[in-house]
Every structure is written in structure tokens, then in C-alpha cells.
Design a protein that fits this description.
By secondary structure, the protein is of the alpha+beta class. 32% of the residues lie in helices and 15% in strands. A 4-stranded antiparallel beta sheet has the order 1-2-4-3, covered by helices on one side. A two-stranded antiparallel ribbon has the order 5-6.
């Protein structure tokens, strides 16, 4: 008897209750079922960061340091404030904090650290190392592979010229090929060879544009001879 009374009382609200029930079912069915992304590195990434931290201990620690940033069994999270991994689980970006007493102003000290990080982060890739000597931080990034399309290259050569090497555009803005002819055309003329014949041996070296003498300092042979005559 009570159920009949309840049904009769709710009949005027039937469409509203049906709409509420339908919306609740649609919201439950369309909920996001993907698991939340884990915060922090997973187990394999943590192990890789810990091994990299342990490898840097001999270079970034000192016996007289009362609170060493790098120590065997220490916390790698304090030394690596930022890090990223690629799809293969290898480090693609890393920021390393190091103590102020590390000799980051010496090229040999920096080269040892860069060689170690290259070996531990994965060979077969090209890395860029940015040393912040004021902030005692080293930022490591993986450079994108060079394009294979020849038309996309910015290096244009004349007929008979060959590009022997490249420099890092972040360090040197431009380089110039400097030929050093050992067997000159003049010697060929004295020996009877054609003047248009190319030199037999030519070595190329790369020099900065700042190393070239300014045009105003070059003297022509005619001016030198006229000065001697006067």
C-alpha cells in the first residue's frame, strides 16, 4: 500500500527524474578511465639517475667538505633539479648542480665531466653542454640529428671546393677556409709547368674572420716599390 502511494506521488516528477538518471548514467559511462601519470621517475629511470650520481662523486666531492653535495649513497635529487627522458628511457635533458670548489674554469676538468656524462647517458648521440660558472650548474641537452636532405644544408661551395668540417654555431658564428699552398704556381712557372695547373699539395685550415688582417693593412707591390724609389 505504501509503495503504491509513493508511485502515485512521484508520477508528476517522472520526466525530471528520468532526465537526472540519464545524465548520471552518461557521466558515469564517459568518465576518464586512464590511470593518472606517475609523478617522478619510474624504477629504471631512478636507477639510471642514481648510477650517474655515483659516477660523478669522485669528481664533485672533497674530503674536507663538511656537507658534500655528492657522496656515495647520497641523495641524487639534490644534485639533479631537472631531468627528462626520451621514449627509450635514456636521458634527454639534465641539469647538474656541482659544488663551487669544482674547477669548472679549466678545460681539462670540463672535458672529463663531459666525457663521463656522454658515456653514462648513452653513446651514439650528440650532446650540448652549457656551463653556468656563476650558478654552479651544468645543463646537458641532446641535439637533434642533422637533416639528411642535401638541399637543406646552409653550406654552399664553389666548383672544386669541399667542406672539410663544421664548427658549433653556438660557439663560433662563422669560419673561413684558409688555404696553404706548398707548391705554388710560381714554382711551376719556373719549372716550365703551365701557370693554370693546380698546385700539387694543398692543406686547408679553419680560421676565424677576426684572425684575417684588415684590408687597410695590406700593401700592394706597386706602392712598396714606389716608396723604395722615393
Amino acid at each position: 500500500m505504501a509503495s503504491v502511494i509513493l508511485v502515485v506521488a512521484l508520477v508528476p516528477y517522472g520526466p525530471l527524474l528520468a532526465a537526472i538518471t540519464l545524465m548520471a548514467a552518461a557521466a558515469w559511462h564517459g568518465r576518464d578511465r586512464t590511470p593518472p601519470a606517475p609523478e617522478g621517475p619510474d624504477e629504471s629511470q631512478t636507477q639510471r639517475l642514481q648510477s650517474l650520481y655515483e659516477a660523478l662523486v669522485p669528481y664533485f666531492s672533497a674530503a674536507e667538505d663538511p656537507a658534500p653535495l655528492f657522496a656515495h649513497g647520497g641523495d641524487w635529487e639534490k644534485a639533479f633539479p631537472a631531468y627528462e627522458f626520451d621514449g627509450g628511457g635514456r636521458i634527454s635533458h639534465l641539469v647538474v648542480r656541482y659544488p663551487a670548489y669544482f674547477t669548472d674554469g679549466e678545460a681539462d676538468s670540463r672535458a672529463r665531466i663531459e666525457q663521463l656524462l656522454t658515456a653514462k647517458s648513452g653513446r651514439g648521440r650528440e650532446y650540448h653542454f652549457a656551463w653556468d660558472e656563476e650558478g654552479n650548474q651544468l645543463t646537458i641537452g641532446v641535439l637533434a640529428p642533422l637533416p639528411t636532405d642535401i638541399a637543406a644544408q646552409r653550406f654552399v661551395t664553389a666548383p672544386g671546393e669541399t667542406v672539410l668540417g663544421f664548427t658549433d654555431p653556438s660557439q663560433v658564428h662563422r669560419t673561413l677556409p684558409s688555404p696553404t699552398v706548398r707548391n705554388s704556381v710560381t714554382s711551376r712557372r719556373s719549372s716550365g709547368a703551365p701557370a693554370s695547373a693546380p698546385p700539387s699539395r694543398t692543406s686547408w685550415s679553419w680560421a676565424s674572420p677576426a684572425a684575417a688582417p684588415p684590408p687597410c693593412c695590406a700593401r700592394s707591390p706597386s706602392r712598396r716599390s714606389s716608396t723604395a724609389t722615393s
